[in-house]
Amino acid sequence: MDPAGGLMPRLAPSVARIRSAVRSACADLSADSLILVACSGGPDSMALAAACAFIAPRAGHRCGLITVDHRLQAGSDRQAERVADWARETGFDPVEVATVTVGTAGGPEAAARDSRYAALRSAADRFDAATVLLGHTRDDQAETVLLALSRGAGPHGLSGMPSRRDRWRRPLLDVSRADTVAACDALELPVWNDPHNRAPEYARVRVREAMPHLTDALGVKLIANLARTARLVAEDNSALESLAARVRGRATVDGGLSVGELSSNPRALRTRVIRRWLLDGGVRAADLASVHIDTVDDLVVDWHGQRAVQLPGGLSVRRERDRLSLTTTV
């Protein structure tokens, strides 16, 4: 009942679903933890931010907000300030506009993502945040799986985005984009629709625009099923990664890898050990392709005296008797 004795307005189902998702995602945080929300001002991150503003204080947590200005279009600074002003008025503390310079490595999408995550990581460190919430939805997960399939990705790519990794949490991976839009409408939130989300030069935008046609052709459950596939593959991949970590422990010799130990394991484990070893050795994940891992694996199972394998970043792997070593070539 409201103070006047009437019925309280009914909570929109979309708002309830998003609040429930945020509550579940943050249930394990200790009292007085600082939760940072990464918010662009679009419907997904605004719905997430509004839910966090409602849930966090009731759970005994503090809630801050970071918005990133990529400076990729005119007026981006004003839009970032509008998001920050809304956050302050809503009660977020701290609130910060992180201005970044986007490079070119990996293409425009990857470069913008790298700059954004670097800014969010820096803010989380400075404010000692327990976690950073990201607004990716079930639709984003489905798009990620399709993009991975188009690249011929393996289990790592088909696993999509994890719901948790390090400080990052994605509460909305089981929430539809339709729900975030509906929640913003119900709460009358000031939503900004980024023009880059309609720019056809971006692969994700092309996939997003194709999704309605794919849904018409393959059924209304397509998005949910793609997201489910990502979750199932991620579960299997996690189990294999755990086994691979044990193999690596046995195979590690003076910073290199024992050929004998690797060769006694199935390819699914060998390639995971090799991939993690190369990443830990300095090869960037964005530059490491399956052809690199396969060629290194050939040094183990198809050895005929071949030369060192050249890798991105000026690194190389060579076999010396029963050991693989990773060295700098430049």
TrEMBL record:
Pfam families assigned: ATP_bind_3 (PF01171), TilS (PF09179)
SUPFAM superfamilies: Adenine nucleotide alpha hydrolases-like (SSF52402), MesJ substrate recognition domain-like (SSF82829)
All residue ranges annotated as the tRNA(Ile)-lysidine/2-thiocytidine synthase N-terminal domain in the record: 35-209
tRNA(Ile)-lysidine synthase substrate-binding domain boundaries: 257-324
Reactions the enzyme catalyzes: cytidine(34) in tRNA(Ile2) + L-lysine + ATP = lysidine(34) in tRNA(Ile2) + AMP + diphosphate + H(+)
GO biological process assignments: tRNA modification
Gene Ontology CC annotation, any one: cytoplasm
Annotated EC: 6.3.4.19
GO MF: ATP binding; tRNA(Ile)-lysidine synthase activity
Annotated ATP binding sites: 40-45
Keywords assigned: ATP-binding, Cytoplasm, Ligase, Nucleotide-binding, tRNA processing
UniProt-annotated location(s): Cytoplasm
Domain remarks: The N-terminal region contains the highly conserved SGGXDS motif, predicted to be a P-loop motif involved in ATP binding.
Similarity remark: Belongs to the tRNA(Ile)-lysidine synthase family.
Summary of the function given for this chain in its UniProt record: Ligates lysine onto the cytidine present at position 34 of the AUA codon-specific tRNA(Ile) that contains the anticodon CAU, in an ATP-dependent manner. Cytidine is converted to lysidine, thus changing the amino acid specificity of the tRNA from methionine to isoleucine.
Protein name per Swiss-Prot or TrEMBL: tRNA(Ile)-lysidine synthase
